[in-house]
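Re: export button greyed out
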Amino acid sequence: MDFFLQLLINGISLGFLYGLAAMGFVMIFKSSRVLNFAHGEILALGAYLFLTLVTWAQLPVIVAFLLSLTGSFIMGFVIERLFLRPLIGEPLIFVIMLTVGLAAMFKGLILLLWGGNLYVYPDFLPGWLSLTLGPVTVPPVYVAAIVIGFVFLGIFGLFFKFSSQGIYMRSVADNQQAAMSLGVHVRRVFALSWAIAALVAGMSGIILGIISGINVHDLSAVGLKVFPVVILGGLDSIGGAIIGALIIGLLETFTGGYISPALRDVVPYICLIFILLVKPYGLFGLVEIERV
Amino acid sequence: MKGPASLKFRLCGNFFERYEQELSIFETDFGRLCLVLGLTVLFGIVPFVTEAYFLYILVIIAITSIAALGLNILVGFTGQLSLGHGAFFGVGAYTAAVLSTELQCPFIIALPAAGLVTALVGIGFGLPSGRLKGLYLTIATLAGQFIIEYVLVSWESVTKGTRGIVLPFPEIFGISLDGDRAYFYVSYISLVVMTYIAVNIMRTRYGRAFVAIRDNDRAAEGMGIPIFGYKLLSFAVSSFYAGFAGALWAYYMVSITTEPFTLMLSVEYLAMIIIGGLGSIPGAIFGATFITMLNEILRIVTQMLMNTGFLEGVELTMAPLREFAFGLTIVLFIIFEPRGLAELWRILKSNVRLWPFSY
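Workaround output, generated via the alternate export path:
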C-alpha cells in the first residue's frame, strides 16, 4: 500500500513536470503549428543556466532562478529571431526539420560546454515544504513542483483569457490570416510565444534538475516524452496537455514500479501508438473534419 | 537537332514537345555518356587503385546512400517526415543477422528479405498515423524509434541483447565476398540497382502520386489519389530501402550490436537528405557522401587535437562535436539553401553549360 501511494505521488509530480514541459510545447504549436523537437534541449539549457549561476557564480538561489528564467525568455526570443523568422512562409516540414537540427545542435553544444556528467544542485529547498500524508512523505521538491505547476497554470489561464497579448496569441492560433487582417502583429506573437515557451521550458528544466539531477540525455528525453503527452491530451489544448501529462506520468511510474524499470521509458510511446489508432486527435484536441 | 541519328549534347533551355521528353531521364546524350563513363571508372578503375581505408569509406558511402535514397522518397517526394529511419536500418541489420545465423539463409536472399521485413514493420508503425492529415507520421516514427530500440535491446532470445550477433561471411553462388574489394562491388551494384528503381518509381503513377501528396494533399485527394494508401506505400518503400541498407551494413560490419541504431542515426539520415537536397535522387547520394566525409574528417581532427596535446585536460570526445556539426549543417542548409547540394550542383552545371552567358 505504501509503495502504491509512493508511486502515486511520484507519478502525479512527474505528471506535473511533463505538464509544465508540455505547456510550452503546446503554446508554440497553437500559435505557429510547429512541432518543436528542440523543446528538451531548451529545457536543458535553462537547467544548465541555473546550475552555472548557482554553483559557479554563487548567486543567491532566488536571484539565480529569476535570472535563468529571464535568460530562457531571451533565448526563446533569439531562437525565434535567428532561426524561425527566416522560414516564415516556407513549408511546415522545413520548420520542423529545422527544430530537429536545432535539437542536435543544442545537445552537442551543451555536451561540449558542460560534458555528459550528472550534476546536482545544492540542496536549497526548505524542509518545511515536505508534506506527510499518512504513511507517505512527499519530498519538498515534489511539493514545489506541484505548487509551481498550479501557479503557472493559473497565470497562463488568466493570461490567455484576459490579457491582450494572450488574446492575440489565441487569435493567431485560430486563424493566422484573419488575425493579421484585424491588425494583430503575427510576427510579434510568434516571437512572444517562443519566448514564453522557452521560459516555461527553462523552469521545468530547473525543477526536473532538482528532482533527478541534471544530465543532457535525460532532459532531452523529457523533451521527447512531451509528444505522447500532447497527443494524448490533444495537440492544441493546454488543459488537455496537463491531464495527458498526469496520465503519462502515472503510467510511467506504475510501469516502472510494478512491471519493469526498463519498460518505463518506452511505455509512453507504446501508449502513443495506441492513441493514434483509437483516438487520433487526443482527449481534448480539436477534431479536424475535412471533406474533399 | 531533329532526327534520331543526331546526338544532343548541350541544350540551353527546355525544348520539350511531347510528354515523353519531359519524362525522359537524360535530356542529352552527353548525360548518357557521362553515366557510362562514370560507371566504367567506378567499377573498372576505382577498386583497383584506392587504398583499403578509402575503399572502406566508399563502401560506407554506398550503403548510407541506399538508406538516404529511401528516406528521400518519403521526406523529399511524399512530404512525410520520419524520425525512425535509424531504427528501421537497425531492423534490417538484425533481420539479416538472424536470417543468416539461425536459418542459414544465403546472402542474396537475406538482403531483400531484410528489406521486406523492415517494410512490414514500417507499415505497422505507419498505419496509425496515415489516417491523419499533417505530420503525425513524424510522431509515430518517433515512437517507433524508441519502441524498436527497446525491442532490439530486450528481445534477448532473438537479438542476443547487448552482446550482439556475429554474421558469417557473405557468399554469392559459392564465391566468398570477404575483403573490401569484393564488398565494394556488392555495395555499388546494389546502389546502382536501387537508384535505378528509385528513379523509375518516381516516373510512374506512384511517384507522381507521392509528389502530388507532398505539394497539396487536398488537391491530390480531389484528383482521386487515395492519400492513405499512397502515404503508406511511400513509407513502406522507404523502410524497404532502410532495411536493405541495414542488411548490407550488417554483413559488412560482420558483428552488430544494438548500439548504433539510435535517434541520433535517424537525425543523421535526415541531415543527409537535407544537405543533399530534398526531392532529388542524386541529392541523397551527395548528402550521404557529405555526411560520411564529415564524420571521417571530424574523427581525424579530434584525434589530431588529442595527439598534439592542444586540448590538454579538456574532455573532448567526438560524439558531441558530431552532433553539434550535424545540427549546425541542418540549420544552415535549411535557412540558406533548402534545396541542398543538388541545387548547387544544378546551378553549377547550368552555369557551365550556358557559359559565357549564364543568365
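Chain B is about 70% helix and 0% strand. The button fix ships in the next patch.
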